[in-house]
């Protein structure tokens, strides 16, 4: 009882999930398993199991309205569905719809039906049918006069597949690139496509009278299948070509033996038109005289010219005929040829040359391509001479470096290409074929024709330079011209038509553009401060087929304009407040102004100046270094608040500037100023006594030292040491009563110390003298005070320095000049390291040029003997030598000064 209840519940659940969907591909063999109903229902059942599934059987119900279902599928008792035959979706289903069949299956328990299932079987369409055109080939007709966008309809293709993708057809036109046709497709109301051939250009039947196109219909299935429709297009003729004679001038000869019924000459013409437009008739032109017409008869249809019965064969004469050839078009077109008939009175005829061109020709004009291969056959020559014997033996000759004449047998020749043809070198080739017989006298015939060489795009464009360099200015308006790029291409037509473009590897777009004529211009205003140099390439391309190209490098340098005003980097605030406590023993420099300018060259060459607030002329500002210092000694009354208006200006054509205000609070008291003056207060008597002692001791010491030095130099005389002795008595100098003369040479000063203004400072340390470094003052950057305070006692000098007595004339003495320096300064410090004041700084003296000499003197009046100070005049420079003896001499002077 319990088992029956469970079975009933299970069947009820199956009834709720009865509809099943299966898929099967068409084309499967019979007895292909479609699905298992029992298994799928069991899978769908999530409540009960199928322990008693053997009690359930399945049976396919027969559709009384459609008995064919039984033939398609079979349902076994166990619930498995099989195909009974090979399925064909195109037969069973409609076009472009879902293809399926409904199978009704009864579910029975033992002998009772408990459920009817509807099983939907979807038949999957496979791409087993190709698109098909109703015809394999169609013919269309266009007239020469048809305009652009003229259309002709063609049939569309049909695909018998029922699947959406398998039956979707895409059309493609296969043609040559130069054929002026295109394909247009549109959807009809019924769903298929309407195909139309559209004329895209002008037709010329004489150039090409037919075209062969292919329409490819391809479905969207996998794999794709296609069908091809051949389209033959015929161009119908219009009378747009006049008849053309095979020769512009016919030159024939007749003799006494000429038969009256035989034509003297046969005219031939060629008309590129068709039908009546190509039907030609011949007539005597009005230029032919009536007397000449009486001797000849002209066949208007064949162009044959006969001699009349009254033609005078016994006279040697030349007749000139003008013949018109007219076609039958509407309106008719015509052309004229000249016929020259020569009457000969002997049986020796000149050879006759017939030329037949292989390619297209107009009269005596032949056209070939410059790409023609060597050995190509371009013309057939046939030479005839009706004479017998040696009079009929003919030899022919063609003299040209590009073509040659090859014999094909008796009286037959061919003209072949001997060497490559280059249209850029030779556009037109004039050919002269001469044939001469062996008669007596020998007769010769010449045949001239011209070969016109058609261009092939075989030369790539060439730039006149590999690198183009241009200068342009910043801040110009867009479209400002930069330069011209020139390239040439000797090809004709599209092959010689050039177009230019710009190439760059930069991430940002170039601010330039180039025209079709090679003119480069800006697309926006340039800013040199952002970028001052542009490097890119120019591509030139011709319009030939295939297209050829070339590249050239372009460098554009942006010239600076004075568009940026200088600005102060120190001080960075305006106004700038500064408290200055004056100390006479400190350097006179107050501060350094610093400014910058984004421009370059003269536009960034800066000058500093004081505009206001310096009415007392207490301050000086160096124009190029920006150093602000005191102009003179400071007094207590100078203590005040000074507001200096300072400007910095560039050197551009239009000067730009910036200003700032320095608020200086100067403090100078009697205490600080009197400190130095007290130390220098010494009685005159003490100065005189100490000065006398110093002079005596120094003179004796220096004299002894110099004598020893001279003796050593004489013993150790070496010319490579570059030491020389001036033995002129007038040149000897005396230092404090002693006569001495010492010389040595200086080392070369490095070039980086070259400047318009250089200061040399001598600073005594621990009562000894030291030669200080040169201080350079460049125009654009300032070196701090610590630079010229460094010890440079070992700095080599370039010439000699002589110390002179006070009673000698300074104009006869030589001084050391370290070229190329032009300024010199002496400074002194005490042992107490108290620094120096304005009074300790000697003035700068302008020195002469490189390797010149000047006298410096030491006078007692310029010296002040003190325990703390020893001022040295700017006019006295102790001798500096590379020799050891001279260094000892210098030390003796120092010891004397200490005592």
From TrEMBL:
One of its GO terms (biological process) is homophilic cell adhesion via plasma membrane adhesion molecules. The chain crosses the membrane at residues 691-715. Residues 23-133, 157-245, 246-353, 360-463, 464-568, 572-677 form the Cadherin domain. Keywords: Calcium, Cell adhesion, Cell membrane, Glycoprotein, Membrane, Repeat, Signal, Transmembrane, Transmembrane helix. PROSITE patterns: CADHERIN_1, CADHERIN_2. It is a single-pass type I membrane protein. InterPro entries: Cadherin-like_dom, Cadherin-like_sf, Cadherin_CS, Protocadherin/Cadherin-CA. The keyword Calcium applies. One of its GO terms (cellular component) is plasma membrane. SUPFAM superfamilies: Cadherin-like. PANTHER family: CADHERIN 96CB, ISOFORM D-RELATED, CADHERIN-87A. This is Protocadherin beta-15-like. It comes from Octopus vulgaris.
